[in-house]
Amino acid sequence: MADAKPFHWEFTPEPVTREVFRIEGGVPLTGEVPISGSKNAALKMFAAATLTGERCRFTNVPEIEDVRVMAETLRDLGVVVDHPEANTYEIASGDVEWLFVPLEAAAKMRASFILLGPLLARFGQVIISNPGGDRIGRRPVDLHVEAMRALGATIEYRNGYYFATAPGRLRGTEVRFPFVSVMGTENAMLAATLADGHTVIRPAAQEPEVDDLIVFLKEMGAEVERTWPDTIEVHGKRRLRGAEHRIIPDRIEAGTFAVAGAVTGGHVTLTGAPCDHLSAFVEILGRAGVDAECDTAAERIVVDGRALREGGYRACDIRTAPYPGLATDLQPPTCVLLTQASGTSQVHEAVFEDRLEWLSDLNRMGARIEIPDNHHATIRGRTPLHGADADIGDLRAGASLILAALAADGESTIHGAHHVKRGYENIERKFADLGARIARLEERFEEGTVSTPS
Ligand code: EPU
């Protein structure tokens, strides 16, 4: 039996090792960078593996903190999670003895809520922490909960936890979302694979990671189809089997490195890159005057930042949207690019409410950005960037502060490296291999300085 997990009133977050990125900017990045497996696909595959007692094997799994947290969360439930070699995981959920996903897991990673659907469908009950509570962010999970209720579950909310039960099997139904939700779609789909009868999910998210999950579920013997771009249909099965799957490449990591090539005026080749999943982003690169060539068959994107040295890029307006629109996760890197574009660019962040706050850090590095409200920003370029001290607030903003520091003149110290480790495999090594002067160092608060780990 796993150790007892704390309830909300007992919870204190684990201390993290404070690390900083120390970056000396101004070097044009040159060379090849391999793109890792997709974080947001891998996390859902691990959850899907709990739908069967048989062993599942995943390759091309990114070596990142969020994957490690998901693996730990599953082990705490009694699931066997093996990591036989780098980028490969094997999961066997025969004996799940502890149907409780604690606040510890939710506080570290909102995506732990993806365990609701599969655990409920297979075991008929689960207690799971609310990751949308005031303490750890303001992103709700109401759509997930309503989808489970539509599938016949009873869910009560007490003391920060959802107590979900479904005696017998969940029942196939129509799950209607008021708007598109990626994990909402995935949770409903995972639950429906073991439900009794036919489920229609609409509007279903169209992100490539959702389709990768469909491929894996079919390998497990599930009957799942995207029958229309915004519709997924599932015919529930009594049992699923173990399966093996290679995770798709991470389109957000690819977009981040593409911007690195562009804003440093370098020449970067992304290998193993998912060209087909980046159409909206590549179209924006083209409008901004960045030379980006995609070779879909070779899974290669070549970004030539020569135009930066020959007069700079062009301003353009961007708006984030669910796939196939511009990914909200690529909005922060794109904003860094637009600081190096001549003219005024309007940014509309239409998916999340808290994704523009970090732009004030970009202003401290020399950008000229106004943020009139939570969803809009105006970027006036082109502005030279200079090194600064900055604090990372979240994963994508953190990666984008690194991009800004790489493009800037002088030295930057970017605090809160652990946020970036959540979602980027070995980011400092990949940048260093392209010629960047970057190091990740342990932070010593008492000295107020940075030193190498002893
Ligand atoms: N929303 C609700 N209620 C819900 C669920 C979502 O109001 O129950 C709202 C959200 O607050 C947001 C909108 O719906 O305004 C869309 O959110 P969505 O549910 O699509 O996001 P998600 O599934 O929680 C995933 C990715 C995010 C990515 C978004 C959008 C994972 C683990 N996370 O989140 O990735 O930004 O889709 O594409 O798949 C990241 O990787 O850094 C990241 C945040």
Task: Give descriptors for this structure.
454 residues; disordered C terminus; binds uridine-diphosphate-2(N-acetylglucosaminyl) butyric acid; globular
Task: Walk me through the structure.
- By secondary structure, the chain is of the alpha/beta class.
- Helix content is 30%, strand content 27%.
- The protein contains 15 helices and 26 strands.
- A five-stranded mixed beta sheet has the order 23-24-1-25-26. Strands 18, 19, 20, 21 and 22 form a five-stranded mixed beta sheet that branches.
- A hairpin with a 2-residue loop joins strand 8 and strand 9.
- It is globular, with a radius of gyration of 22 Å.
- It starts with 18 loop residues before the first strand and ends with a strand.
- Mean pLDDT is 93; it is low at 133-137 and 446-454.
- Uridine-diphosphate-2(N-acetylglucosaminyl) butyric acid binds at residues 39-40, 43, 111, 139-144, 181-184, 327-329, 351-352, 395-396, 423.
